[in-house]
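Schema walk-through. Below, the input block comes first and the output block second. Nothing else is stored per chain. Lengths vary across the set, and this one has 559 residues.
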Amino acid sequence: MLLFSCGCDRHHKQLERIDTLCESSPRQAVFALDSIDYGNLSEKERHYYDLLYVKSRDKAYARHSSDSLILDAISYYSKTDDKKRYAQSLFYAGRVYSHLGDLPSAIEYYSKAADELSHLTDDEECLKLRTEALSITGRLHAELKRNQEAIPYIKKAIYDLKYQNDSTGIVYDNLQLVKIFTEESDFEQAKHHLSEAIRYSDHIPEEGKAWIRSEKASILIHEGKEDSAMIVMKPLARLVDSLYNNYAYRPTGKFFKDGSDAGYIYAKELSFSRDFNNQLVVTELRHPLIPKDSVHSFVMAYESRVDENMNRYESEEEMMQKTKFNYDTHLKARRKAEAEKRQLIFAACILLLIACGIAVYFKIRSLKNELRLRTALNIIDRIGFVAELENAVESVEVPLSRIEYLRSLKALPMDHSDKPSLKEELLDRLMAFSSEEMPKAEVEEEILKSTVMETLQKMLEEGKGIAQTNEDIWQDIEKTVEAVSPDFRAKLEVLASGKVTKSEYQVALLAKFGITPKKIASLLFRSKSAITDRRSSLAKKIFGPKADTSALDRLIARL
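--- output ---
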């Protein structure tokens, strides 16, 4: 088992090393993954392997053709506590669906990834991944011509990029906003974001800066200011890097339809571009330069018709993508509403169960309290009956059969009372012990003749006391009391609502022995006032605020 666990740990560490390798050398990560025996991996490691398989190939610019691996990874990590890998799985699902051409699904997964990663911003890698997810989500929205939905995502990405000091990302995301706001004819915002892109472009080569500044010409063209656009573009056209010149020449070429050399030059540059939009610009440049009576006019007409069809099909495809996205958004909202409804019903059921539990708890508590009060009343009735019986024996002859019958009862019959509650009835009966008419019971013979009583008397004569650690003598005292008054402590706790401390109980035991408070103080090494406080405290618990310690002495003696 030890060797097996070490082997599993070795595989996991190897996968973690490959994970770190994905950023710096993705091709090496791909080769390293291929060298691992997939069959020897545990379930946890297999799903980690699947995630790395998709991640490493994405970093190596390989095109994804299937979503099965990434969906399995999402399903697995959604049930674990590994939030970071769950968020990564969602992000790479977005990459997979982007390659598969399913842009609405890609947007959905990127959005989920951004939401999950927002809770993991302490991790630098997660923060960068969240920023990338936001940026790509905005770009995909823009690609579907959902510009208003795209803007918030790109702005959030720019905010994160500023926090990370990623000036390159800030430049490109601002340029994306320039394009969006230009299409929306919000030229002020377009110019603002262009100035932001220029402000953060210090590290970019001069050719790239020229291309960025050439975006101003595009804004001016959309504003209808072609002369101003010409002034902006003329010094920049030749400065633009070859990677970007197709994009830079596109707005410039529109100014040279008069057959000038510049027009031919820009048309030639654009003709080498594979971009369909650039081909349209070339067609526009060539059209006025060819005689109308030439056969080429038929070719131009054919090209124009092809362009119209291509544009129409592009528009239809765009509309279908947008419709599918709207449907998916609606479906997602409906599923979310249904999930919230289920959660609401579940929460209502939980609250109902909690309410029922609380009701049952208080009902049981009420019944237990009622049982305690009835038990206390029964105890007091027994005490009162015994006192009356003693008086009756001295004054009036009582049939012995009647006395024996009453003594045999475990619980005395309760008389009907007009009191509104058992508690008030109990307090009324307890207050009878405060009356002088209640005779004080004598200490039982079994207690007076007990060995422990002799021990206590000897201690008092010698001025000694009971040590705190002397548990044996307290056990003897308690056994002696229990012999003459079974369940003495239980009865005392019933009358005091179960609130009898150890020190109060000890005072009650010694009072049952008929020992005065002064002598109790001596035995317990306490002051007389301390003993008085304990007796008063116990009396208040039993008799209420208006307690009388003499009533407590009478009760304990008869308990």
